[in-house]
Amino acid sequence: MTALESAATHEPRPLWMPDPAEVAASAFAAFAAEAGRRAGTTFADFDALHAWSIADREAFWDLVWDFGGVIGEKGERRLVDGDRMPGAQFFPDARLNFAENLLRRSDDTTAIVYRAEDRREGRMSWRELNALVSRLQQALEAEGVAVGDRVCAMLPNGPEAVASMLAVASLGAVWSSCSPDFGERGVLDRFGQIEPKVFITCDGYWYGGKTIDVADKVAAVAGQLPTAGKVVIVAHLGTADALAARLPNGVTFAAFTAGFDAKPPRFVRVAFNQPLYILFSSGTTGVPKCIVHGVGGTLLQHLKEHKLHAGVKPGDRVFYFTTLGWMMWNWLVSALAAEATLILFDGSPFAPTPLVLWDMAAAERVTLFGTSAKYIDSIAKEGLRPRDTHDLSALRMICSTGSPLAPESFGYVYEAIKPTVHLASISGGTDIVSCFVLGIPDKPVWKGEIQGPGLGLAVDVYDDAGRPVRGEKGELVCAKAFPCMPVMFWNDPGGAKYRAAYFERFPNVWCHGDFAEWTEHGGMIIHGRSDATLNPGGVRIGTAEIYAQVEQIPEVIEALAIGQDWDGDVRIVLFVRLKAGATLDEALTGRIKAKIRTGASPRHVPARIVAVADIPRTKSGKIVELAVREVVHGRPVKNVEALANPDALALFAGIEDLAR
Description:
ACAS_N, ligase, Acetoacetate--CoA ligase, AMP-bd_C_sf
């Protein structure tokens, strides 16, 4: 039994229990009551409601539409070919507009609060947001942007990005974005595939106390996007005018939107599966896949997650630390549909101090605070205790994703941040622009566990033979079709790449690529990505099981494990990044191995432990085991531009320590 299993299944009591009065007053309870009325029964708890949501998907998603107050024409049919995956069609007769559903308010209350590391900050009312969207919409129309056209953005996380996306969506066009820290090749590998009609970018950004000028990169990228009739420059460093003048088709954001009246925006209603977003796979093993998400599936799924699972209600203040290169940005912006206020932050979460995000959370009365598991681990290692230094009385929920949240991090949140907060470890990803497993309002939080599956999603764990399993590890699957499956992959005639990505392992079943396990509480543990699973002696081991032990060692900042082909088998090699002043001597090596042996199992103990100065990760902060594995085996990594710190890969090439 691994430490993750032990922590999750043998804790004497949960870390958090829902308040019955709060649950009774929640949107979840109201939804369950209406579901019971429609189904002619009573749903005693989440598990009963979830079972119904799977058994009668037509009725469930019909109620999500109504309960979420979706603006649009629902049409007659709810689900056609529901047993086909891919091929199922939800609401095939519907007509709706994504932006219309997010801009359902136009009053003077606050829609967006934004802060940036350079001290740029401000507020935007719903009225002001509608006005900016309208001016952008008119400007985009003047450039010929219409239904199905692509608009791409390389922007910091600010109000201009939100308004631009809404303007694009209002026209029935397609939005795709990345953050300005992407390299030239990384941007072109993404946007070059989808041929944008307009490219929206910036003159630079701030990070870690430094200004980063991107003028040369913008010029290089723009020169290789021949379909972009306009390159729109948002000013962040005060050099937008000069950059716009440098480009033959350049224009500043201010000039692009000038001269248009701030009349109410118009909304072009489109089919349920009309493309809305193009997101990209990480691209660390080749050119990124272009994953196309539809208008209706994205809207319904996000309304469900925000309102029912996260309890977001009008006036709530929702924050997620993210960039435009991570699908959590798309998820965050959808909170507007629940009439919440978006709290945006751009910059380093540790500048000017490691408490900058908590300063903002306290000052802005944040109700939902979203971040990554790595951030929680980092502030824990810094010894920070926000509960002692900040007023977090408004904070109701903390969400964590990006990688599995270690059991010790669960304990840290309740001990050092807020004892009464609802901690929701969530997991899903770019492939579904949402979550498969996430927080549940009427269930306890157990250490090391994600609470359970999303409503309407037939989530399960299969063994290699395609059989559901309990109490053992297997493949995370979804056994029935759901609305937020990708509409398609871009440039994938016949859908061969799409089918290969999700449906080849188990016919007619979505195989997500996570190595997972149900717990005795009905929760789930994610043990890492299936393609990064280690197989020493033929036994499958999730990398998260090793990290959960190693990162408890005070000297270790972070770790990365791979399987190295060795002597006809596979051996585990563990790389560790150490704190300043620490040395990987025999004593520390012995402590690391002992911790893994006792906390996990002897099979988890690495054959080699190697200290490295840095560990490569994607732009969204995920470590890249596969890329390191390729380097160690002397194979080329196809797309280093996908990495936030590509130079780190060189540290793993020809490491002498591995030869012994």
